[in-house]
Amino acid sequence: MADSERLSAPGCWAACTNFSRTRKGILLFAEIILCLVILICFSASTPGYSSLSVIEMILAAIFFVVYMCDLHTKIPFINWPWSDFLRTLIAAILYLITSIVVLVERGNHSKIVAGVLGLIATCLFGYDAYVTFPVRQPRHTAAPTGKPAEGPSSLH
């Protein structure tokens, strides 16, 4: 049993490091870290707003593990691309609303920092939603017809 654990550990570590170097891995890792920093700022000023950061941090960590371990291919009954797109879109909208409310209220410095970081999180989650949506859509390519391409070069 100990030998199989030693053999699987490097594979798990390799999968983690390989995924964390992809664009999606970097985005998810940045979302987790940013949510943690926003959580700390909200906890220092207004604990009422911290639940959004906790929920989004947990969801980003879940999606990080799912994509890192290739569970999205092993659990087919959940549509992972659409789930991830909706998660990021809803997070962007909620962070935008929360940040505007926090910045309009004007409070101590940690509250203002949390509001500004919330706007940065809005951009990050919005970018992730933008990147996630087109990549997951099936791309249709024209079938080859065997005819030479028509264009300026074929008219000579």
From TrEMBL:
Keywords: Membrane, Transmembrane, Transmembrane helix. Residues 19-137 form the MARVEL domain. Pfam families: MARVEL (PF01284). PROSITE patterns: MARVEL. GO terms for cellular component: plasma membrane. Its main location: membrane. The chain crosses the membrane at residues 26-45, 51-73, 85-104, 110-130. It is found in: Membrane. Signal peptide: none annotated. It is a multi-pass membrane protein. It comes from the Eukaryota. One of its GO terms (molecular function) is chemokine binding. May play a role in cell differentiation in the intestinal epithelium. This is Proteolipid protein 2. It comes from Pan troglodytes (Chimpanzee).
